[in-house]
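User: I'm writing a tutorial on reading structure tokens. Could you give me a worked example: one chain, its sequence, then its tokens, then a sentence or two explaining what the tokens reveal?
Assistant: Sure. Here is the example chain.
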Amino acid sequence: MTSQRQIVFWVATLAATLFFFWYLQDILLPFIAGFVLAYFLDPVADRLERAGLPRLAASSVIIVSAVLILVLAFVLVVPAMANQAAILVNEIPQLSAQLVQLANEFAPQWLKDMVANNGGDLQSTLADYGGKIAVWLAGFAATLWTGSKALLNVVSLLLITPVVAFYLLNDWDHLVARIDYWLPRDHQFALRMIATDIDVALAGYIRGQGTVCLIMAAFYAAGYTVVGLKSGLAIGLMTGLLAFIPFFGAVLGGAVALIVGFLQFWPIEISLLWVLGVLVIGQFIEGNFLSPRLVGHSIGLHPVFMMLALLGFSYVFGFLGLLLAVPLAATTGVLVRHGLTRYLTSGIYRGQAAMQDDG
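And here are its predicted structure tokens:
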């Protein structure tokens, strides 16, 4: 097979894969969750296997333990979180109106005069923007709920996802060996190198960032609840779990906590400082201890390309794309780096003289 035909084949395969994900995105989330869970827990299964436990028994112990933890979370945490989240979403218009009133009260006179010179008044302008933001936040919350229904559905969570994770975890080594057997023989070594680099990038993010999210969700939920923040459990869990989405997750969660805290406690500065303190301490712990140790720099992507990936994949695939943006971008980054290395050593880059010297 010529190089051109190989390129056409792999481009067609990539296009078919993307179309498959796009067309079935509404039902894929439990299966992707099962894959991520199996990938996340594969090192645990390997350790149990090295300790003498058969792979089937190790997979069974891990999945049963994970299901029990999820059931316990649904019984103890999810109802309270869902109730607080519903209250918070219903209060968005009221919170927006309070924020507009405070902004108008403390805005400098020059700003009011500037808005008045343009044919309006500050309060109505802020109310207009506040209404748009409130609608966007409510829509975003609805999108999260709609996009997460497949995962939050009891049948999907307690049946489909664990079953998928169990089979993948039990057969993980066999699947890897089978895929390795399918690799083109002429490019087997290069493809193994690419797969190894992709595994390093994905392991650093999925396992590392997933652990960071769980730790930070527990920290923020406990911290905001202790300081008395309204809907503190829901806001804290949301802030921690949204850290899986770089840039936007932490900003959104922190902004919601500060806005709710400001409207709830103003003008009691000490309570506001407690809310701010929880956020600052959490960011400090995550940025200086957890992320460097658990995630590191394994993704290897520039922040600009990371943001582009988040916006692009979320636009095409919705909430599912938002979750998959960083892993897919990391995979793409590995492929681009290897392709660039091949290009820099090729005659296309080096020119005709270099090709003749090699000949």
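What the tokens reveal: The chain has 17 helices and no strands. The chain has a mean pLDDT of 77.
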